[in-house]
Write a structure and sequence with these properties.
Number of strands: 22
Protein name: Glycosyltransferase family 92 protein
Distance between the termini: 27 Å
Structural class: alpha/beta
Organism: Mangrovicoccus algicola
Largest sheet: 11 strands, mixed
Length: 372
């Protein structure tokens, strides 16, 4: 088995200084700005990344929702010292992308009383063209879990590549993370180092702008950069595995779909009730009785109709169109409840009744080795 070519790419973006009076406006009214919200809310990141796309002939900026920071960004952007021309801005629920069609040059930003040089990196689309790719955001997930995740989908679905956004892991180095992908069956991998605030994970109000900018922004960064010409892309977390008939690939189903997308529904799976700490995927061979559903995920072609029309998000893409046209029952998601660095036994109750899934246990043993 040939080891994959793994690239580590730091994304620098630009964050306002701690001392700056200019900040992103809150997305919630004062009475709902809890201490947790204020601590986790990213009011300083103006852009996450800037990449030059040779085929399109311009600069692509990926950002959180700009809100009040749009005008300072738009008015302060300079190319070779001169104000830039028209830009194409696309806004989604949790993030934005801006495209400036222009020849290569030096970018700078005049904002909050200072002028800063913006880093521009080269695109990666050539490296992943035509490949079936996994994409995920990760922070401190155990290295063997990441290897398991890649190995399982390479063996079962013919995954060939991985795009992983490392959100500031402290348990290992980026070099150790890159080494963990060896021997998994993948051909290519890129690890974007993206140590930006993830955002508040509590529930937003119905009409709020969601403050969890980061994950959706990273997915859309991948969509326009590394995965722009990938064959198909499976967006699932490290604790999620896609199950299906022997020999069938979810990538194939997405690539053949008229809209280029399939939605994957699923269920929670659990380790033995005696488990005291986090557990690898192969320990999760128990299901709740009755079955307990988890959030859905998706597999998509980057240039398919759904991707072009709606961009990428974590669960919901295209509203009613997703429900009407992309649902399928051939593939299911197994969401591993204790495969988490934040997992503790006293944080949740095991289901009152569970049954062992012998078929799942056999599959995990075949692909990942013993786990119970």
């Amino acid at each position: 088995m040939t080891d994959p070519i793994v690239t580590v790419v730091p994304i620098a973006g630009y964050r306002l200084p701690e001392t700056s009076a200019l900040r992103r406006d809150p997305t919630r009214p004062p009475e709902r700005q809890s201490a947790y919200y204020l601590e986790e809310y990213d009011d300083r990141t103006v852009i996450y990344d800037c990449v030059y796309l040779d085929r399109e002939g311009g600069f692509l900026f990926t950002a959180p929702r700009f809100l009040n920071l749009w005008e300072p960004f738009r008015n302060g952007l300079r190319l070779d010292g001169a104000p830039v021309g028209p830009m194409r801005r696309v806004t989604w629920l949790r993030c934005e992308q801006v495209f400036l069609k222009a020849p290569r040059g030096s970018l700078s930003l005049q904002i909050a009383g200072e002028t800063v040089a913006l880093e521009v990196r080269d695109g990666l689309a050539e490296d992943f063209a035509g490949l079936n790719a996994l994409v995920a955001v990760s922070k401190n997930n155990r290295l063997d879990w990441i290897a398991n995740w890649a190995r399982f989908h390479a063996a079962g679905h013919r995954a060939e590549a991985m795009v992983l956004f490392d959100n500031g892991s402290t348990d290992y180095t980026l070099e150790e993370l890159a080494a963990s992908v060896k021997g998994t069956g993948l051909k290519r991998a890129v690890i974007y180092s993206a140590p930006f605030p993830y955002g508040p994970a509590d529930k937003s109000g119905r009409f709020d702008v969601s403050p969890r900018f980061f994950q959706s922004a990273m997915l859309n960064l991948a969509r326009r950069d590394a995965l722009d010409r990938a064959r198909a892309v499976l967006s699932i977390d490290i604790d999620e595995l896609v199950l299906g008939p022997e020999g069938a690939s979810v990538f194939d189903m997405a690539a053949r779909h008229p809209l280029g997308m399939v939605t994957i529904q699923g269920s929670w799976v659990y380790p033995a009730e005696t488990t005291e700490g986090p557990a690898p995927q192969q320990a999760h061979v128990w299901r709740a009785v009755p079955d307990k559903k988890c959030n859905r995920k998706w597999c998509m072609t980057p240039r398919g109709a759904m991707s072009r029309a709606f961009g990428w998000a974590v669960h919901q893409i295209g509203g009613i169109s997703q429900n009407l046209f992309t649902m399928q029952g051939k593939f299911r998601l197994a969401h591993c409840r204790a495969c988490s660095t934040g997992w503790k036994k006293n944080r949740f109750r095991f289901p009152e009744a569970m049954e062992r899934d012998d078929a799942l246990a056999a599959l995990l043993r075949e692909r990942l080795g013993a786990g119970e």
